[in-house]
Task: structure prediction
Amino acid sequence: MKIKLLEITGKAREVILRYPMVLLMALLGSAGAICLYETNYSEPGFIAYSKFTMCSCLGISLMFALKMLSQRIGKSYILESAGIIFLVGFYFIFPDNNRDFTEVYQYIIIVTFLLSHLFVSFAAFLNRNKEPNFWQYNKNLFVNTVLTIIFTGVLTGGIELAVLAVDKLFDFKFSERIYLDLFFFMAISGSCLNFLIFNENGLPYLEKDSQYPVVLKFFTQFILIPLLLIYAIILYFYAFKILINWELPRGWVSYLVLAYSIVGILALLLVHPLKADHTKSWVKAFSRLFFYTIIPLVILLFVAIFTRILEYGYTEPRYFVLLLAVWLTGLVVYFVFNKKASIRFIPVSLFVAGTFSLVFPYLNAFSVAKRSQKTELIKILNNNHLLSQGKIDFNKKVSEQTINKITSQFVFLAERKEKDFLLNLISDAKIKNKLTEDFQQFYFWNINNSLKNAFVNVEKKPGTSDYKQIILESETDIMNIQDYQYMIRLQTYAKQFKEINGDTFTIDNQTKINGSDALRIILNSKEEIDFIPAIHKLFQENTTAEGIAKLKEISVENNLGKYHIKIIFRDISKGKYSYSIHENFYYNDAVILIRENK
Result:
């Protein structure tokens, strides 16, 4: 036992000394995730913790890639310093408030994380032509990743159960936070440590020649390739259906084609060394035929994505789908016509394409999407004769469907900071001032409501549903918590269980009562109160013609047992379809304040 313990601690010590920056990033990521979870979305620190956690987690893969590169070429300190400078710069790319953290930044995060992992796959092989070493290196990384997931999952579950057992058996009364804190620590720092232990001394171990794993062969031959066959049959039958009926392909077929291509490329990479084995004829046949099977599907992919682009214009997702279609075309040409094709081309070319989509001037995803949607908005306005001397005429007759398209375009462009372009389309001072105010609000849905209210001559199709919405907004972000002892963050559409002074509070805004929304707080499974009637009253007292009312404080309160409870909302909306008798409530950033009655 002592020998095993010394062996484990010795390996951990070696890993810490060999990969200090990788482990530091993991520890910072764990700390950031814990702080992030314990911070309310509306609090100033939330966005800072989000950025910090994201950059730290990105630093794990980046620092590992740079470590592999430094093991090849040296210059460890220079590379790691460059990595830190990149992460600091990446941190400051993002806005400092929640409102401006739109989906644009989500695309940046996703693509950058993908690029960092692609960089891991080839960083140490930029100037080396030893393809067997390249394959062994990535195969070992793949296997170690799978082992890390299994080991970390079992270890995390075991530790969580051990803490639970100690808590229940010895009455320690641990805070509920300890379980999530442990999860974040093990999921980030623990998994990182396990992964690095599996990688032993790094590049020399990862790229050394080893026997082809039987499990990997079984997985590829009997799981991945049969899945590919199923995908191919479905897609080819669908292509024949399109030709027979002479109809345009549906949009989601793009994702099926991409899924088929990605799974196929993964299978191709996994069986790559077996091509030299003369007894593995199925590998040769698969490797030779796969890229030919992609050719008609890539054509189908181009037809599907251009159908959407020509009709609705570019958005970031459509841009990325088109970029992947171009990348797949490049792969087909490269592997079909190049007899000395290298599998390194796959991650390197995808890395170049991803980098192009983020940083190339004028042609990056975000520039293209903004220009395209501006054009689409002007086209909609012109086609419906709504422009008069370059300004929107809100008095002209317009269909409800057209208004929905216009409001959708406005919200899309507002999220991408095109305020001046949008306001330049409006001449009416009242509407312009209202939209100017909406651009400063926390949520962009106010723009949607203001525009819909601005059109005075709306043509509704028979049978269309009329959705009416009223919004209450708080004039301040400051909440008065004086005289209250406890504060709980209200989670949307969830059940929460909180224990205070031995009393259990069940907070339920997930369960509906007779089809209508409910917001119930239950004390010790005996006494309960539903706050929805009080919220109804709040709306009745503050209904406006514009559908938006601003209050100094949006709150409801009542007694429950020996406690007084108050719920404060940042904003809350009430909506109802004309065909429905039920009203729906939507809210974010709400808190529950609790105090004991004297």
Remarks:
- The chain has a mean pLDDT of 87.
- The chain is about 60% helix and 15% strand.
- The longest strand covers residues 467-474.
